[in-house]
């Protein structure tokens, strides 16, 4: 019954179903958005199983489906996202999903898609962005890496030209790349993507569907797609690569 209802509610989602709680523990191989659990099960109760799941994935939404209301206090103590009494209906499941505690922001309708995992690429309305200069693309990658933080000319030079002094010649080059970057997105109808303020530059993150940002928001799909590679063509991304590697090991309990 649950399988049919979830197929109607979320036809494009990945759904897995188990009758053995120990099989669930064996298959905690990737992040889970929502776990629907009964309370009374053979071998292990649902409260214990929920604790084991959230030890591995703290942002997993736990929804209990049970015929016993007396377990509600225990569920609330562990901050469950929902408690649905049997007999449940599709409408009750939809309400539980609508009010779940942890939600990943929906970025699917944003016009600019940015791929950071693997090699860096940018798409606007599904088409690959072609920059006039490769350094313009690298500059945009650096601003993406900064996640909306405003960057000065000196900061950008220090990361794009780490072995060169920030003299007038280099600053002149950077102004050319900045102008090319802004012009590129202006021609594509997303002129508001680059934010300028008193000689500093940043990106408007509200226009971005970025795998790196989704990963930090604990989006299960983004987490499953991260394989250890981040902006592989750019040396300045090394610090973020190290951060992502540490986060990956921590999230997967790898020592």
Describe the structure.
The protein has 255 residues and is of the alpha/beta class. It has two domains: 2-98, Rossmann fold, CATH 3.40.50; 112-251, Winged helix-like DNA-binding domain superfamily/Winged helix DNA-binding domain (Arc Repressor Mutant, subunit A). The chain is 42% helix and 14% strand. Helix 6 (134-145) crosses helix 8 (168-187). The longest helix has 20 residues, at 168-187. The protein is elongated. 28% of the residues are buried. The mean pLDDT is 89.
Helices, strands, pairings?
Layout: H1 2-9, H2 21-26, E1 34-37, H3 46-56, E2 61-66, H4 72-77, E3 82-85, H5 90-98, E4 112-115, E5 121-124, E6 127-128, H6 134-145, H7 153-160, H8 168-187, E7 194-197, E8 200-203, E9 208-210, H9 211-216, H10 220-225, H11 238-251
Parallel strand pairs: 1-2, 2-3, 4-9
Antiparallel strand pairs: 4-5, 5-6, 7-8
Helix pairs in contact: 6-8
Helix and strand sequence:
HHEHEHEHEEEHHHEEEHHH
Q: Indicate the CATH architecture of the largest domain.
A: Orthogonal Bundle
Q: Which residues sit in consecutive blocks of at least 5 with pLDDT less than 50?
A: none
Q: What structural category arises from helix and sheet content?
A: alpha/beta
CATH fold call of the largest domain: Arc Repressor Mutant, subunit A
Q: Can you say what the CATH homologous superfamily of the largest domain is?
A: Winged helix-like DNA-binding domain superfamily/Winged helix DNA-binding domain
CATH class of the largest domain: Mainly Alpha
Distance between the termini: 40 Å
Strand content: 5-15%
Strand order of the largest sheet: 6-5-4-9
Overall radius of gyration = 23 Å
The biggest beta sheet reads:
4 strands, mixed
Please provide the count of β strands.
Answer: 9
Label the overall shape. Answer: elongated
């Amino acid at each position: 019954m649950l399988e049919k209802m979830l197929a109607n509610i979320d036809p494009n989602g990945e759904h897995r179903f188990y009758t053995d709680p120990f099989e669930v523990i064996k298959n905690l191989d990737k992040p889970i958005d929502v776990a629907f659990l009964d309370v009374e099960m053979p071998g292990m109760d649902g409260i214990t199983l929920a604790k084991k799941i959230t030890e591995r994935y703290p942002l997993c939404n736990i929804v209990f489906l049970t015929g016993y209301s007396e377990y509600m206090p225990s569920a609330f103590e562990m901050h469950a996202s929902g408690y649905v009494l049997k007999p449940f209906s599709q409408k009750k499941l939809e309400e539980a999903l609508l009010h779940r505690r942890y939600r990943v922001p929906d970025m699917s309708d944003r016009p600019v898609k940015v791929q950071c995992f693997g090699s860096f690429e940018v798409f606007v309305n599904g088409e690959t962005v072609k920059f006039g200069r490769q350094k313009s693309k690298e500059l945009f990658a650096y601003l993406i890496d900064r996640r909306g933080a405003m960057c000065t000319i000196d900061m950008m030079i220090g990361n794009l030209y780490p072995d060169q002094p920030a003299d007038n010649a280099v600053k002149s080059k950077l102004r050319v790349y900045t102008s090319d970057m802004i012009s590129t997105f202006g021609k594509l109808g997303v002129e508001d993507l680059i934010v300028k303020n008193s000689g500093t530059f940043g990106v408007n993150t509200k226009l971005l569907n970025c795998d790196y940002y989704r990963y930090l928001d604990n989006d299960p799909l983004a987490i499953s797609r991260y394989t250890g590679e981040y902006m592989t063509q750019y040396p300045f991304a090394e610090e973020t690569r190290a951060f992502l590697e540490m986060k990956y090991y921590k999230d997967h309990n790898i020592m």
